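Archive entry. Fields below.
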Amino acid sequence: MRRGLDIVMGCVAGGCLLACLTISTGLVWSIARRGWGALSFSFFTEQIALVGASGGILWNLVGTTVLLSTAFLACAPLAVSLALMERVWLRSESMKKALRLGLYTANGLPSIVFGLFGFLVFVQWCGWGKSWLAGGLVLAMSMLPTVTLVVLERMAAIPQRYIAAATGLGLSQSQVAWAVLLKQSWGGLISGSLLGLARAAGETAPIMFTATIFAGVTFPKGVVENPVLTLPYHIFILAQDSFAAGVETKMWGTALVLLGLVFSMSVAALPSRLYLHEESDV
Amino acid sequence: MTRVLSWLLSALAIGAFGFLLCVFLFQSGPVWQSEGTRYITGVSWFYRQDVFGALSLIYGSLAVTAVALLLAGPLGLGAAVFLSEYLPQKARLVLKIPLELLAGIPSVVFGLLGIALLRDWVYRTFAKFDPLSGDTLLTAGILLAVMILPTMVSLCDDALRSVSGAQRQAARALGLTRAETIWNIVLPQASRGIASAFLLSVGRALGETVAVFLVIGRQDNNLPHPWYSPAPLLEAGQTLTTKLGGAETNIAFGDPLHWAAIMGLGVLLLVLTAGATCLGTLGRRRHA
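PREDICTED_STRUCTURE:
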């Protein structure tokens, strides 16, 4: 009886895991199977035509790259500063705790909230209209907590004796920050940013009111009223239309490209992500 | 110099988030003044008549989250048990990779999968209840379940592994089988961590926008009668996030009261998600 229950428990738990793995690989396979046919050299080098039924996704790729680069440039200095704040400048333990809790909570905020904020502040109040800069800044805000937390974990993992040695050599706090903390945590900034960008690349909600339209623009030439085309919004719009055969293949092709982009960024960051899951206590 | 710079940039970052909160609170002011508590308890939302009751949206959000949790909770916990209690370290890490990849699929692609695979399946499977289409709260809930599954597995796995190995060895030495050890020792001790895994998943599910948007049908004012009736699950509905992501946000800007009502939904969403995430994080921290 007890032996039987033991076996049943193992089978049920194993079945659960098997189901999770089947779902995950099955979904990826189903996207790849449908999208594979659309991929060709011209798919990456032509612009959109016939409302998505023809042509390629050149400017969508460019637009997504523009947004991600802007987001990275805006986010990285802030993330490093916040992490240094927690490690070096903040003295009181309760302030540090509050900062960490704030970061974790901000990390869970829905992305649509950032989209509305950007719509009101950048698009309306600043008068930028839909603009790549608005989208980049909104994405930067939405990925800031993730990046900061990864940098923070990496800084916390630096052996205390490095810092003690640097201080012992007479370095000031700023010098310690540059020579030890920042130098040792570059990897954290890179992998944290990759994680944040992987998430940001697929986000639709924050940019649909602030930065992106479906067709008709190429490379932005200024800030005001200069939206870009993006991969997720392309899929979002096509998904709501009826599925004409031509559109459908192109749409799944776009989804596959987006997935490839996101996966390559997450895979590059995967070692540190798994490591974080293994080691971090919060 | 470094110090001043990092103070300034941190102040900028924290200021931006503070500003976000203030913007939502102040911009939603008019609707709280005009509708009072009816804004939360009101059953109808007709913006042309300036009637703003968000109850059906709150119901939609909670309903899809509940469906997602009911499906992903047991499945995720089971998978986590197998990962942490049955598998050696190396195999665990290898099997976690596909799950991390599942976590990486963008929400709009999930939406697309929902349209292509799930919508018709729900329509056919529940045909005897005569749903109008495959765009239902249930469809959205199932899709959300798949989306929160990786979070669930990963966090439950962390919670289970934070129980010390000595406890397991002691239990086994006393003659308990592996299943009994898990039921009587590991799960009770990890319960707090598991609870926060659920809470953090709830936070994620509540905030999901685009995937839900594509399969929920987006029909306003769908509430169950009586309140416990499951019938609306097979009808189109609307959640806080799909309302915010829809065309109404663009229409609302310019009409102060309507805009305030939209921003008010943002406040409700912020309170719900931040509450769940904050509690979940605190629970985990004390547990670990």
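CURATOR_NOTE: The longest strand of chain A covers residues 48-49.
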